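Consider this record:
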Amino acid sequence: MSEITLSPEPRPLGKSGLSVSPIAWGMWRFAGVSSAEGRALIEAAFDAGVTLFDTADIYGFDGSGGFGDAESLLGEVFAETPGLRDRMVLATKGGITPPVPYNSSTAYLTKALDDSLRRMKVDSVDLYQIHRPDILAHPQEVARALDDMVSSGKVRAVGVSNYTADQTRVLASFLSVPLASQQPEYSPLFLDPLTNGLIDQAMELDLAVLAWSPLGGGRIGTPGNPREQAVAHALDTFATRFGVSRAAATYSWIMAHPARIIPIVGTQNTARIAELADAFKVSWSRQDWYDVLVAARGERLP
């Protein structure tokens, strides 16, 4: 039986012309530490082979304060370590405006990008994504804002996050540049993108799929209900065989899909960041991969 093997080699970020690592590091909890501690986390990610770093203006926000804190901390790290920015593919997002909650008007997104660049102390980002769809913004207006970002030189590529397949298709129809990415929630505990057309569309349009919460919000690490425990058991059976952690097995399971899904790993622990490289030590038979899927679905395949 043929096996699915994973390569740590860079792959295209959709049609952007950018090449990125097969695993990304996310900064939604990158706040509240010193710049030296922040730099140590980034260096650990580099050591694990990561080149794609994902942040957002909302990261660091705790519900009442801290908006922009993750970007600001990253800006401090960049200021103290010249050249660090040039080693990474830097992605950020905008459009969540608590307590509104969303704003994707051209005027707002233009300001949001400028504010992000100022906080991070950079002239441009490699990827800018709309964080969540704004129902009150016409996709033509959103497209105009994204096109202007690219033409201004402040952004190299654009994408969306938490969009439906239809919302993605309609926005793409108004853009003069290709969408590069789609960022949905996806894990063995959240399989919707497999069945709602999102991943199929990504393969059709050559969009990079950036999967947030690949460990199911930590529930794969500390399973509670019977379904979560069944998924953990299926992953452990595989992980034990190859001598890797359950987390590394999960990342590899996600990456084994032919859409070449890129998990965004948010751990702020340097030892766990180092484990990212273990995801490439393993290979999946179809039986092994489907065993995890059956456990995740909680029922037999038809």
Summary: The chain has one domain: 9-222+246-280. The chain is about 40% helix and 15% strand.
